[in-house]
Amino acid sequence: MIIANPLYDKGEPEKLPLPIITIYFLGFPLNSIQSGVVKISREYRDVVTQEILDIKEDFVELLTHDSYLIQVRKLAKAARNKLERVLHIFSPIYQSTSDKHQLDFQGDTGDPLVKKMVDRLGRAIASEEIRDLMDVEDELDRIFDREMRKKDEIIAEKEEIIAEKEEIIAEKDKLLIEEKKRAEEEIQKNLELQRQIEELKKQIKP
After folding, report:
1. What are phi and psi of 33, to 5 degrees?
2. Domain carrying residue 18
3. Which one of 37, 97, 149, 175 counts the least CB within 10 Å of its CB?
4. How many separate domains does the chain show?
5. Do 166 and 201 reside in the same domain of the chain?
6. How much of the chain is helix, strand and coil, in % rounded to 5?
7. What are the pLDDT digits (tens) for 127-161?
8. Is the dihedral of CA 106, 112, 118, 119 positive or negative?
C-alpha cells in the first residue's frame, strides 16, 4: 500500500507495510471446534490487572496477526452466505473418486465469483504443467510419509530398548535391595547368636 505521508520531508510517497492475516484450510476436523469458519482475534490485556485494554496500536498490529481457520469438512451443507458459497468449492464431498486432484462441483455456480473460481480451477486442472506439479507434490508427500513412518518405527524401537533397559535396571535394583535385606538379616542373626553365646558363657562360668 502506498500513501502520501505529509510528514515526509521530500514529499515522496512512503511505502507502509500491510498487516499479515493467515488463513488455514484444514482437511481434517478439530474435535473442539464445530464451526466451519472461525476467526482467531487478538486482544490487548494488562498482564498484572487482567484488564482488557480497548486500544489498537499500529506497531503492535504489524507484529502480530489475526487468523482464520476453515474446516472444509465442517462447512454447512447448505451455504448460508457468500463466503460459504465460495468455500464449498473446496468441500471434499465433491472430490472425484477417480482422481483426487479433481472436484466434481455440484454447488451453486449462479454466483459470479463462484463461477469464476470454478472456471479457473478447471483451467488449472487442464494444464499439463500444473498436473505434473501436482504429481510431483504427491510423490513428495509419499516420500515424506514413508520417511516419517521409518522415523516413527526407529523411535518406537529405541523406546522399546530403553523400556527393556529400564526394566533390567529395575530388576537389578530389586535384587540388590533383596540382597541387602538378606545381608542385614544375616548380620542380625549373627549378632543375636553372638549375644546368646555370651549369655551361655556367663551362665557356665564358675
Report:
1. -120, 120
2. 1-74
3. 97
4. 3
5. yes
6. 55, 10, 35
7. 788 878 888 888 898 899 999 999 999 999 999 99
8. positive
pLDDT tens-digit profile of 6-37? 444 555 666 777 778 888 888 888 888 888 88
**Helix (H, G, I), strand (E, B), or coil: what is residue 11?**
coil
> What global pTM score does this model have?
0.48
Q: Is 25 helix (H, G, I), strand (E, B) or coil?
A: strand
Q: How many of the other CB atoms lie within 10 Å of CB of 107?
A: 19
3-state SS of 123-148 is: HHHHCHHHHHHHHHHHHHHHHHHHHH
Domain end: 94, 126, 158, which one?
126
Label residue 173 exposed, middle or buried (CB < 10 Å: 0-12, 13-18, 19+).
exposed
Greatest CA span in the chain, whole angstroms?
A: 126
Residues 69 and 139 in one domain: no
| Residue 61 CB neighbours (<10 A) | 13
Question: Could you tell me if 52 and 98 are in contact, meaning their C-beta atoms sit under 8 angstroms apart?
Answer: no
What are 52's strand-pairing partners?
45
* 9-13, 52-56, 78-82, 184-188: least confident range: 9-13
Question: How high is the pLDDT of residue 3?
Answer: 40
Same domain, 189 and 170: yes
Cα distance between residue 173 and residue 74, in whole Å:
54
Q: Which three cell numbers stand for residue 115?
A: 463461477
Are residues 142 and 205 both part of a single domain? yes
